[in-house]
Design brief:
The complex is a heterodimer. Chain A contains nine helices and no strands. By secondary structure, chain A is mainly alpha-helical. The chains are: A mainly alpha, B alpha/beta.
C-alpha cells in the first residue's frame, strides 16, 4: 500500500525533474499509452506513467529506485503517442541524471566486459557508457 | 552531386559494409560522398535533459567543421543522424546554448548546415522515379520488410524525415528497386538498442518481436539503416538458428546493399559476407543464373 502525506513528500524531486526534463508532469493523466507502446515495458518494475504518477504524488524516491529508469533507451514511442505531449524518456533521463549528479549512482566510465565490446557495434558501447556519465 | 559525409564510429569498424556499399551505390548514381575531414564520434546519443551542455559539445564541433566544407552533411547511421540533426536544431533555436557552445569551442557556428540522411538525398534530390530508371537488376519477387527502428524517425517534430508511425520512405525506395514490400506491425518498434550491452536478455526479446512480426508476414529479408538494429536482429537469428527458432532466419541487410545489387554492382563489393545470417543462398535464388558470390 502507498501512504501519501503532503508533509514528507519529495516535492523537491518533482520540481527538479520538471526543470531538467523540461516536462510538465501534471499534464499526465495516466492513460497508459506510453506503457502500451513501450517495447521494453515487459521488463519494467514501474511503467512509465507510474513513474510520473509517483512524482506527482511526492513519492519520487520510489521512482528513483525503480529499475525502469535504467531500461529506457529513448526510442520515443511513448513521446510520439502521448496525447498530453509529455515525453517519459526525458523524465527517465532526468531521474538518472539526479542519481548520477548526487553520487547515489557512481558516474563515470564503467568497465564493460571485453568480449562484449569486441562483439557489439561501437555505437552500442558508446551509448551504454553515455548513460552512466554526466 | 558532391556531399560531405559523416561516417561515424560504427561505419568505420563493425559496419564497414554499410559504409562501403553506400559509397559505391551512391557513386553509381553520380552522388559523390566525400568523407569530411578530421571527424570524431558524435557521442551516439542526444542528451535528453535540458541542462547537459557537455553532451552537445562533440556534435557541435562536427557540425561547425562540416559547415566549413559545405551547407549540407549526409549521414547513414541512425544514431549519428538523430544526434547531429537534433543538436543542430538546438543551435538554431536556443540562442543561449548557441553562445555558450561557441564560446567554449572558440568558434562561430550559426546552425546553417542541413543534416540529411542518404535516404533523403535519394528521395528528395535524385527522386525515386529517377532512381527506378537507373535500376539494372530489379529485385523482382524479393519480399523485403523495411525496418525503421526508432532513431531514424523520432522525435518526428525534430527529425521531420517521415511519419513516425506510418513511414513510407523505405517503401518508396524498395518499390523503385522493383522489390515486393512486406508491411509488418513492428516496423517502427525498437530492437532493444544498446541494452544488448547491459541487459542482453531484454534486448533479445525486443529483437525477437520484430523478427517474428516480419517473418510471419512472409519477408525474405529485412532492410535497416542502423548498424545496431542490424546487429541485434542478425545475432538473435543466428543464436536461434541452431535451436528452437519460432521463425526462420532471414538476412538482415542495409538498404544500401540492396540498392547496390539493384544498380548492378558486383555483390563482392557490397560486404555481403559480413552477416551472421548468410544472405547468399537467398540472393542466389533471387538473381539467377549469374550467382552473386562473383
Amino acid at each position: 500500500m502507498l501512504r501519501i502525506s503532503a508533509k514528507d513528500g519529495r516535492w523537491d524531486l518533482l520540481n527538479e525533474v520538471e526543470e531538467i526534463s523540461g516536462q510538465n508532469l501534471y499534464a499526465c493523466y495516466q492513460c497508459g499509452k506510453c506503457a502500451a507502446g513501450c517495447p521494453l515495458s515487459f521488463g519494467m518494475d514501474l511503467l512509465p506513467y507510474q513513474v510520473i504518477r509517483l512524482l506527482q504524488l511526492g513519492q519520487g524516491q520510489a521512482a528513483l529506485e525503480a529499475k525502469s529508469i535504467w531500461l529506457c533507451v529513448g526510442c520515443l514511442t511513448c513521446a510520439t503517442r502521448c496525447p498530453k505531449a509529455v515525453d517519459p524518456a526525458r523524465v527517465m533521463e532526468a531521474l538518472r541524471t539526479i542519481l548520477l549528479r548526487s553520487g547515489q549512482v557512481p558516474a563515470g566510465m564503467v568497465l564493460l566486459p571485453a568480449d562484449v565490446i569486441a562483439q557489439v557495434p561501437q555505437q552500442a558501447s558508446v551509448a551504454a557508457l553515455r548513460k552512466l556519465t554526466l | 552531386m558532391r556531399i560531405p559525409y559523416f561516417p561515424g564510429c560504427t561505419l568505420y569498424a563493425k559496419a564497414k559494409n554499410f559504409d562501403q556499399s553506400a559509397r559505391i551505390a551512391a557513386a553509381a548514381l553520380d552522388i559523390q560522398m566525400d568523407e569530411m575531414k578530421d571527424w570524431q564520434c558524435c557521442g551516439a546519443l542526444h542528451s535528453q535533459v535540458t541542462d547537459n551542455l557537455m553532451g552537445l559539445v562533440a556534435p557541435t564541433r562536427i557540425l561547425s567543421d562540416a559547415r566549413q566544407e559545405s551547407d549540407k552533411l549526409v549521414t547513414l547511421c541512425s544514431f549519428c543522424y538523430n544526434t547531429l540533426k537534433r543538436v543542430n536544431r538546438v543551435i538554431q533555436n536556443d540562442g543561449e546554448k548557441r553562445v555558450k557552445l561557441n564560446t567554449f569551442l572558440e568558434q562561430e557556428y550559426d546552425g546553417r548546415l542541413k543534416v540529411v540522411h542518404l535516404l533523403e538525398v535519394l528521395r528528395d534530390d535524385l527522386g525515386f522515379d529517377q532512381l527506378a530508371r537507373r535500376v539494372k537488376k530489379p529485385l523482382t519477387g524479393l519480399r523485403v520488410a523495411p525496418y525503421y527502428g526508432c532513431l531514424l524517425l523520432r522525435p518526428a517534430k525534430e527529425i521531420r524525415l517521415d511519419d513516425p508511425e506510418e513511414p513510407t520512405i523505405l517503401e518508396g525506395l524498395l518499390t523503385s528497386l522493383g522489390a515486393d514490400v512486406v508491411d509488418f506491425p513492428q516496423k517502427t518498434e525498437c530492437c532493444g538498442s544498446y541494452l544488448i550491452v547491459s541487459n542482453p536478455d531484454l534486448a533479445e526479446q525486443a529483437s525477437s518481436a520484430v523478427l517474428r512480426g516480419a517473418t510471419r508476414r512472409g519477408a525474405d529479408v529485412l532492410v535497416t539503416t542502423c548498424p545496431l538494429c542490424q546487429y541485434n536482429l542478425d545475432q538473435r537469428e543466428a543464436a536461434l538458428e541452431a535451436g528452437n527458432g519460432s521463425y526462420g532466419a532471414v538476412p538482415i541487410l542495409y538498404f544500401t546493399q540492396l540498392l547496390g545489387l539493384a544498380l548492378g554492382i558486383e555483390p563482392a563489393r557490397l560486404g555481403l559476407d559480413m552477416h551472421a545470417v548468410d544472405p547468399f543462398p537467398l540472393l542466389e535464388r533471387a538473381f539467377p543464373p549469374v550467382g552473386v558470390r562473383g
